[in-house]
Amino acid sequence: MTKPAIGFIGLGLMGAAMVGRLLDQGYSVTITANRSRPNIDAAVARGATEVATARDVAAASDIVMLCMDTSDSVEARMRGADGVIAGLRPGGVVIDFGTSLPGSTRTLGAEVEAAGGQYLDAPLGRTPAHAKDGLLNIMAAGDKPTFDRVEPVLKDLGENVFHLGALGSGHTIKLINNFFAMTVANAMSEAFAMADVAKVDRAQLYAVMSAGPLHSGMMDFVKAYGVDGDPNQLAFAIKNAAKDVGYYNQMAQNAGVDSIMSKCALSALTVAVDDGAGDDMVGQMVDFYAKRFAK
What is the β-pairing status of strands 93-96 and 63-66? Predict the structure, then answer.
């Protein structure tokens, strides 16, 4: 069977890895520049087609994929004379792989449907290294027949592909997931910094903690930097972590509840960004806590 034509917007760390995977699997991929050239140029060198606008991407594609940093970025690329909606093919599908606010997702979904297409939210778990090999966790939601239609493509990108219900459910679950993950990452980062203050060995602390029920993949990611000095096992920037926990807190407020647990992680991540560490990886929050304790 002929593979659907794919459009992709947002070639950051994750998006570039996903485009590489799609090209490896023989898809025709159309892209447009967003912020920087290197990943665009690399994709074009491998066979992707570059066009000028998001509208042009949609006009060339059966499925338009976005992997953007914020809901504002997604909305900017979707709307307007040069946006995805303006160029959408009849029956076209738009998939938001980023981590967006569920309310924004549902609003865009209605606009896409009014234009004759379908909108799915499908935020991602795991890292760009997993994306390169088609091993992502994909938390999709939206119209079930549309999901069924694009599921073979999603399975080329992900090892675990979920359909989680109505549009916005994927982003809701992803925000809860990332709130929990970043809270654990911050707790482990502080634990390593406290080990320094208490003059105990970080590696020994990890050995004890990881031998019991506290052991987790997130603990291992933070240990990769805090003990082994490798920040890239968790290739997720502090600024993106702050955004996601902020979205979780906003989602809670929109639901009329007050999140207690998110406030500590959000405060630390926000201060780290304000201190100029936004582009560092989350594992490097160990340094943030160590510096604070050293004052």
Answer: parallel
- Pairing label, strands 29-32, 124-125: unpaired
Phi/psi at 270 (5° precision): -65, -45
Q: CA–CA distance from 248 to each of 94, 96, 174 (Å)?
A: 23, 17, 9
Q: pTM value?
A: 0.91
* CA 9/CA 56 separation, integer angstroms: 11
Q: Give the residue among 136, 121, 128 at the shortest CA–CA distance from 171.
A: 121
pLDDT tens per residue, range 155-214: 999 999 999 999 999 999 999 999 999 999 999 999 999 999 999 999 999 999 999 999
In order, the DSSP letters of 69-125 are SSHHHHHHHHSSTTSHHHHPPTT-EEEE-S---HHHHHHHHHHHHHTT-EEEE--EE
d(CA 134, CA 83): 28
